[in-house]
């Protein structure tokens, strides 16, 4: 009895285990239009997977590229509040030069609010710009593998149905085995 209860609780704690609200779900839909100044980061990344981090990103990008996961755009959006604005340069210095860090303008609509996001959230979009995962704390702590697994899942699977921008060349070399082997590998991720 205790084993099944523990297993059930563990499943409920998974970010895709049903804890998200089913009302007005934004999964598999395009995000609301958001801008940083005159830039639209989501428009720039059309055709590639996009990971929007509402935090200070780490070196996950480099690890995934070494594993063959390419054509992924990473974006960090700093909070709009005054303390965050004052620490923008510090945040930018902590993030790879290959990842743009956007500072919201004071008078613009808050991107975090538009995306229903909080500090340390990761929003992962497929190549067609549809939200596949929205991970918050504690699942967004990069020490754990939830963010990495969610990126790999979104990269390799059609979670939201067919995306015309996904091709066989989108898969890393590790996944260019026979179709039967690839399916087996995907279940191991």
TrEMBL record:
Signal peptide positions (record): 1-21
Residue intervals of the Selenoprotein P N-terminal domain: 23-170
GO CC annotation, single: extracellular region
Keywords: Glycoprotein, Secreted, Selenocysteine, Signal
A GO molecular function held by the record: selenium binding
Location in or out of the cell: Secreted
Name listed for the protein in its UniProt record: Selenoprotein P N-terminal domain-containing protein
One of the GO BP terms on file: selenium compound metabolic process
Tagged with keyword Glycoprotein: yes
InterPro entries linked: Selenoprotein-P_N, SeP
